[in-house]
Amino acid sequence: MRKNTFISKEALTGSLKDYRVPNGIDLIARTDAFYDWQQERRQQTVWPYARTISSPPAANCEALSDANERLSGVNFGSQDYMSLASHPKVKQAAVDAIGKFGVHSAGSAALLGNTALSRELEQSLSEFVGGREIVLYPTGWAAGYGAIQGLVRPKDHIVMDILSHSCLQEGAKAATGNIQFNRHLDLRSVKSKLQRIRQQDSKNAILVVTESLFSMHSNTPDLKGLRELCDRYSAMLLVDCAHDLGCMGENGLGQLETQDMLDGADIIIGSFSKSFASNGGFVSVKTRAAAEYLRYYSATTTFSNAMSPAQAAAVLTAVEIIRSQEGKTLRRALLSNILKLRTDLSRAGYEVLGVASPIVPVHVGDEARGRIISKEMSAIGAIANLVEYPAVPLGQTRFRLQVMAQHTDRDIETIVTAFRTCMDMTYTPGDLKQAASRMKVENRRSSAA
What's the rounded Cα separation, in Å, for the pair 175 and 179? Predict the structure, then answer.
């Protein structure tokens, strides 16, 4: 029997934007308004965030909601794209590392935090990305932030895609006030910004910042076009490859490989939290001098503890698998799953955004509708992440489905059926009373059954 499904208007309206700049003299008390709104959504079971997984992040999993309600079913909410988080070799490598080195690095990379495993990982990653220098970071966010904060100085300039990740934007803010945002994937906008900067400043550096795969839109930039503009205006190109490195491309090098741009990027950022089965990240540069500079001037590596031995061992083994024939087989299985999911969703009449990648965004639009769909999907055993503002603009709510190599055709058919079932139960913003009424009818039908 399903619970009463009436949902209050307060739980279906509003966004994080309403509480982003609280007012008042009391720094702590002024957070109450956000918490009250969050609690209303939580009590109405339309707060789909901060879930707790209680099994491996596999194609099917067990989890708890933020309100401790049990969830189970097909999992399209985890970013274990290559299905390596539970790979026997990866798990054993972590266990062996703990046995030899303990559980903690106990220091920053600058102060005795490295292990033989982290040094070996640097070498393995260097070989993977064409012989570049590698600097390891404790998280992928730290790598993105630290690459910009560590190299850019106050008189320098940054031209950044407007949809660049939080870590890149925050790193830019920490480095300089000279930040210009170009329209998303728009080369003409980039050219205009660069031209204007160089007309006024011919002495200081410019860093052009983009991502190889934008995680909320599943789209990619013209990297060669950006390289040509950088060459024309004496700028450097930074590419954050968090979501496609390891899992896309014949050899696992993502858009850098697909667009033949591995050598064209001056700075490459990678994250281990997607395809590499661990936390952590890295920055790749072309010279030893730049790498050494980052090690001592990039705050998020100098003043953070280094990756733990278990993390380094897990990533090292993941890299070995990714570069092997098994890795190629997993990538082919992943791509097959991606294409099937996108095709099945499109045939069912849903708007699937972007290009084929492990991220499959399904457009919903209205926040209220998205919250109802998320609630209903969880109830029928389909786990997927609802994305609202500020991760996407207001009114552009979507589900970000994340595909794994080990998903089966049945898993994909299950999530598509769940969308069809739950989207048919939802309505437009002006129909909240009608929605509540019709969901009560559904509730009575379930009770009668």
Answer: 9
| Residue 241 exposed, middle or buried by CB count within 10 Å (0-12, 13-18, 19+) | buried
Q: Look at the block and give the residue holding tokens 């950088």.
A: 230
Cα–Cα distance measured from residue 179 to residue 327, given in angstroms and rounded to the nearest whole number = 39
DSSP 3-state of 208 = strand
From CA 223, how far away is CA 210, in angstroms rounded?
9
Query: Is residue 445 very low, low, confident or very high in pLDDT (cuts 50, 70, 90)?
Result: very low
As a three-state string, the secondary structure of 46-114 is CCCCCCEECCCCCCEEEEECCCCCEEEEEECCCCCCCCCCCCHHHHHHHHHHHHHHCCCCCCECCCCCC
Query: Is it the case that residue 278 has pLDDT exceeding 70?
Result: yes
Kindly report the number of other CB atoms within 10 A of residue 396's CB atom: 20
- Kindly list the strands in the beta sheet with 179-182, ordered across the sheet, starting from the edge strand earlier in the chain: 133-137, 281-285, 267-271, 236-240, 206-211, 157-161, 179-182
Angle at 363 between CA 361 and CA 369, to 5 degrees: 125
Copy the structure tokens of residue 30. 């002024």
Residue 356 is classified by DSSP as S
Model confidence, pTM:
0.91
Using alpha carbons only, give the angle 217, 219, 225 rounded to the nearest 5 degrees.
Answer: 140
Edge-to-edge, what's the strand order for the sheet holding 397-402?
Answer: 359-365, 397-402, 385-387
For residue 64, count other CB atoms closer than 10 A to its CB.
15
Task: Give tens-digit pLDDT for 176-197.
Answer: 999 999 999 999 999 999 999 9
DSSP H/E element including 325: helix 325-347
| Cβ atoms < 10 Å from Cβ of 207 | 24
Domains (range + CATH), the chain: 15-25+41-75+326-448 (3.90.1150.10), 88-322 (3.40.640.10)
